[in-house]
Amino acid sequence: MKKRRFLSLILCLLLIPGAMLFTACGEDDGYRLSNLSTDFYNIANSYENVNLTSDDRIEFDYSIYVYENEQYFTNAVNSTIPYNNLNNFYNRLFDNSLSFVYEYIDRCSTDELDVERDKRNMLQYRLQEFNESLRNVSNNVTLVAEIMRFNINDSILDRTCMNRLKNLFDSYADLYQTAYNLTRVLSDIYFNYALTDSNFDFSSVELDQFDATRVTNNLNSKIEMQISNLTQSYIELHVKGGDLSTRLTTDNNGFGSVDSSFNEYLSQVSQIDIDFNSTIGESINFSANKQAFHEASIKLYNLQTLLNNEYEMYNQACNDIIYIRIRNDFNATTYELICADIIDNHYYLIEQYNDTLVELLDIIMENYNG
């Protein structure tokens, strides 16, 4: 009996640090959205090697690792293959995974939104899940720093260093997934509770009654969500469950590199990551491009509806297979191939959505220049 009580006490003590990151909520009321922003940024402030940038984005801080007045980890990340993949690849995907969260978490951090208890509690769960995966990456950064320090007068490219670097690369997989899980539940709250008619059917409005500001007012949020969707799709198609981390950390007459699909992904993101003033819709209303803008807005609505309707099926397919393995497996089952097709079709919709956003943004930029 004493042993059981002792183990229970230990368990409670172990749970305290993580629990203190999140503001307590009443059992009946559920999680309070007014705590959301604070809880999110408390996560970022909980780890020595994690910082918030000046614009409140999460970044890993390698400068804290110093030996003989040299920031040896930072130097390696800035100039040494394969350490440079941290900022050039893994952290870029991480930053884009949270694109929507960074922009809209503050707007959802209010109890004025009438969100069901279950959804608010799911948001808290996704925060805790994200915190655990961030902690895991943070710990792996420290492990890499320790082995680098041990080998600093020999070679930071030896096999022991590369094994730990591979483990660090692999730990990003859960971080990406939990970042996207958080994005999905937050975007549900934003689009369905903070906004009204966020996916309005503009085919129901004749051109002379069409107001382009109804599109431009909400377009930035859809762009930020698209960046998150592009990132998740890229990871699903090219990273998850593959051997990329092994190739990047194995020296076969030179270390491996990320393939061209990453540059294609970055190009898709850069095409839509454009700043504009939402009031430009007023100019479009009186421009020669109003009809084209109206037609593109209808197309965006249709694609958004398709994406909304097929998401659960897509999410299930992602959970049930490792796409990279199935696409190269001649022995894949019929169900596994169906799942792979669902993932392919989702990406096709994401591409079409991106193209439509580019259409809208081209018109917006033309009206700025005009």
Give a concise summary.
With 370 residues, this protein is an all-alpha fold.
Name the assembly state.
single chain
Spatial order of strands in the largest sheet: 1-2
Number of H- or I-type helical stretches: 14
The parts where pLDDT drops under 50 for at least 5 residues are: 1-20
Secondary-structure content class: mainly alpha
Number of strands: 2
H-E order: HHEEHHHHHHHHHHHH
Categorize the overall geometry: globular
* DSSP helix fraction: 55-70%
Main sheet record:
2 strands, antiparallel
Beta-strand content estimate: under 5%
Beginning-to-end CA distance, first to last residue: 80 Å
Mean pLDDT: 93
Polypeptide structure, described:
The chain is built from 14 helices and two strands. It is an all-alpha fold and 370 residues long. A two-stranded antiparallel sheet has the order 1-2. The chain is globular and about 75 Å long.
Features:
single chain, 370 residues, mainly alpha, two-stranded antiparallel ribbon, 2 strands, 67% helix, globular, disordered N terminus
Element layout with pairings:
Blueprint: H1 2-19, H2 36-44, E1 50-52, E2 58-60, H3 72-79, H4 85-97, H5 99-108, H6 117-150, H7 159-194, H8 213-238, H9 244-248, H10 261-272, H11 280-284, H12 290-320, H13 323-327, H14 334-369
Antiparallel strand pairs: 1-2
Helix pairs in contact: 2-6, 4-7, 5-7, 5-8, 6-7, 7-8, 8-10, 8-14, 12-14
